Amino acid sequence: MQLFENSDQRDAYTADARVKIVDEKGVVVLDQKAEGPFMLVRLSAGDYRVAASLKGHSLADHAAHVTDGGHAKARFVFPANAG
Question: What CATH number matches the domain at 2-78, 3.10.129.10, 3.50.50.60, 3.40.50.2000, 2.60.40.1120?
């Protein structure tokens, strides 16, 4: 997962975003603050919804499909001055 903030027409790394991952049954499997602009999470194979928020700014969640031994990628870009 990558977390950015739009700054002066470019994307800058951000930290302290809250990340929430929910599985296909609606069970929250992760809800924590990212300590930097990248977050790696080990998940079982399945379908997930990934959401991120930064100081009150929530972004649309992303669908993620994880296969056995595979990976999924999510990129969130917050508006300028969100952090």
Answer: 2.60.40.1120
E strand spans, 1-83: 2-7, 10-13, 18-23, 28-33, 46-54, 57-58, 62-66, 75-78
pTM (2 decimals)?
0.84
Average pLDDT, the chain: 88
Tell me: the pLDDT tens digits for 43-83? Answer: 999 999 999 999 888 988 899 999 998 888 888 888 876 65
